[in-house]
Write a sequence for this structure.
């Protein structure tokens, strides 16, 4: 449990620093190794972008990137995760938002 708390805090802090000036990031939160990055728009497309980059993530509530890494993750792996994910989130948020069609 100690490792999960420590690594989860590391991921949240590092991801927060990497995305601190990124418009469209609403919040980074979590408990232990369950980490969520809430965006200001639907972000299901990030699942495929991450998978193409070798990361397995999912999206909940339509706009929250959820990370559930292994309990045995270490510092180096956590930093690698952030280094791979942050540019994908930046790239996604830099794209123009697609407006939903109204009926």
């Amino acid at each position: 449990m100690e490792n999960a708390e420590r690594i989860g805090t590391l991921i949240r802090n590092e991801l927060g620093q990497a995305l601190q000036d990124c418009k469209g990031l609403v919040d980074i939160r979590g408990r232990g190794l369950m980490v969520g990055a809430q965006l200001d728009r639907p972000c299901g497309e990030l699942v495929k972008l991450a998978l193409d980059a070798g990361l397995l993530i999912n999206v909940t509530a339509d706009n929250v990137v959820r990370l559930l890494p292994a309990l045995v993750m270490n510092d180096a792996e956590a930093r690698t995760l952030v280094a791979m994910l942050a540019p994908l989130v930046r790239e996604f948020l830099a794209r123009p938002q697609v407006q939903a069609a109204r009926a």
Notes: The first helix runs from residue 2 to 18. The helical segments are 2-18, 45-52, 75-94. The longest strand covers residues 25-31. The beta strands are 25-31, 34-39, 58-60, 64-67.
